[in-house]
């Protein structure tokens, strides 16, 4: 981008990802998807859910379900299977968490759940915090600020067009999600301004492939070879409709080694992408292991 000639560039510049829950939503499904997107990996991912807009008719019922699921989250050493949530990444994140919680309390927000830094019961070694759910006034500055922490702000809406306007009121249109009827989903897809969207997805309201939660299939971007554009190895996850039916498209589970052999032709210009940096890292090593150096 800084060279002598301009080059096309697509850059991810952060996320402040919204989810809309309509009055027609399956609230059990919504609560599961919201929990996983907002708090999975401690909210420390680009696609984390951080803005939640809930229809006023179902807001109280959804909050009850979210509080129940949050109370069941086990926090601790992430190398132990029984712990769903590990620590935040470092001292700075730990201290930022305390500042954001204070800012919520001091600017008219209501903390519904969470807000404590955890230093007892074996959590002294590590930067452990509780996931936070807060109902905040729309003028609160944290609606606009990417926090990269397990903090979710909630607003009750009456008209769905208001919810859409609020969801689109961000400079960071990375991902977005909706829970509602089929008609709600069609309306959402017509009007949302986001790069990646999800509908009625209990495995993550605004978050892509979750290892261990759903099937995925390796695919290849179809780009004319003459353009020498990078080919992309990507995991494509299914999206459930409001009737909880999986996509009817044929699916296959491939090992990483098989995906590399099947979808990366010799002589190709290859770009590897994945849900975390570990996926392209592992794919690159698999290509080397197969002796595929002429790419």
The termini sit apart by: 23 Å
Described by its quaternary structure, the protein is single chain
Please identify the structural class as seen in this structure. alpha/beta
Q: Give the beta-strand count.
A: 12
Could you describe the 3D structure shown?
This protein is an alpha/beta fold. Helices cover 27% and strands 19% of the residues. The chain has helices spanning 27-39, 59-71, 91-106, 160-167, 182-191, 256-263, 278-289, and strands at 17-21, 49-55, 110-113, 117-118, 128-129, 132-135, 151-157, 175-179, 196-199, 216-220, 231-237, 270-272. The strands form 3 sheets. It has a 7-stranded mixed sheet with strand order 3-6-7-2-1-8-9, with helices on both faces. Strand 11 (231-237), helix 6 (256-263) and strand 12 form a beta-alpha-beta unit. Helix 1 (27-39) packs across helix 2 and helix 6 crosses helix 7. The longest helix is centred in the middle third of the chain and has 16 residues, at 91-106.
List the helices and strands and how they pair.
Layout lengths: L16 E5 L5 H13 L9 E7 L3 H13 L19 H16 L3 E4 L3 E2 L9 E2 L2 E4 L15 E7 L2 H8 L7 E5 L2 H10 L4 E4 L16 E5 L10 E7 L18 H8 L6 E3 L5 H12 L6
Parallel strand pairs: 1-2, 1-8, 2-7, 6-7, 8-9, 11-12
Antiparallel strand pairs: 3-6, 4-5, 10-11
Helix pairs in contact: 1-2, 6-7
């Amino acid at each position: 981008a800084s060279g002598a000639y301009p080059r096309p560039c697509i850059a991810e510049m952060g996320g402040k990802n919204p989810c809309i829950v309509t009055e027609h939503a399956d609230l059990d499904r919504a609560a599961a998807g919201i929990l996983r997107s907002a708090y999975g990996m401690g909210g420390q991912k680009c696609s984390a859910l951080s803005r939640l807009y809930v229809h006023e008719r179902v807001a109280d019922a959804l909050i009850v379900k979210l509080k129940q699921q949050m109370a069941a989250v086990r926090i601790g050493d992430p190398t132990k299977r029984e712990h769903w949530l590990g620590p935040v990444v470092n001292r700075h994140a730990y201290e930022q968490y305390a500042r954001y919680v204070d800012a919520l309390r001091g600017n008219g927000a209501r903390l519904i759940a969470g807000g404590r830094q955890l230093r007892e019961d074996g959590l002294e070694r590590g930067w452990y915090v509780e996931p936070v759910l807060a109902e905040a006034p729309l003028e609160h500055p944290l609606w606009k600020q990417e926090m990269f922490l397990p903090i979710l702000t909630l607003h009750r809406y009456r008209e769905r067009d208001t919810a859409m306007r609020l969801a689109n009121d961000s400079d960071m249109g990375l991902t977005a999600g909706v829970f509602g009827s089929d008609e709600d989903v069609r309306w959402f897809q017509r009007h949302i301004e986001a790069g990646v969207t999800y509908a009625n997805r209990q495995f993550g309201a605004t978050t892509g492939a979750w290892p261990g939660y759903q099937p995925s299939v390796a695919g290849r971007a179809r780009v004319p070879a003459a353009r020498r554009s990078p080919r992309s190895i990507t995991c494509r996850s299914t999206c459930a409709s409001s009737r909880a039916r999986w996509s009817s498209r044929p699916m296959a589970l491939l090992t990483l080694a098989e995906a590399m052999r099947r979808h990366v032709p010799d002589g190709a210009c290859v770009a590897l992408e994945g849900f975390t940096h570990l996926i392209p890292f592992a794919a690159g090593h698999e290509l080397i292991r197969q002796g595929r150096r002429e790419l």
